[in-house]
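Run log, item B.
One chain of 170 residues. Sequence copied directly from the ordering sheet:
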Amino acid sequence: MRVPPFDRFRRTGQTLGVFVLGAVIGAAAYNGLSVAKFEALVNQIGMLEDQLGQYEQEIRKLALYKNQHSVIKTVLVHVEESRTPGEPKRQSLDAVSEAALKKSIKEDLEVFVGRSIYDIDADARFARLLLDGKVYKGVTGRDYLVEIKTVLVVDNTLRVWVTARPRSPA
């Protein structure tokens, strides 16, 4: 029995190998793009769910306090980057972590809804005592240290600016 010469199939084998290699690389690139799009979609869904919950809660609160004009009706939390000049640049929060952190902080500040806006001086001190230096544990798998920077009441809305940074393991 004779073995056929494979020299005549060498060129076909090389072409087939390049084609298969191109298909594998193309599939990997397509998979990477689809994962990136899916991650962006998950982040957008998280932000939209947060906004929807916030709007539903605002509607309930506004209906409850619609005849009272000098009370805090809503609470808005703004998370900002650290402003300390000597501190190294930290990685910013992703959208899902920021939304979960805002929700936790807002739940803590709900005690101010329905209070008079004229008592903001005592309320601001109370908020600072309540939240300043507080550690929120388990927010998307990490612990965050929160510091209040500014508390402001505008148009029956309590606005609170905080900085949040990941807590270093002790």
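Observations after the first pass:
- Strands lie at 74-80, 134-139, 142-154, 157-166.
- The mean pLDDT is 83.
Flagged for discussion on Thursday.
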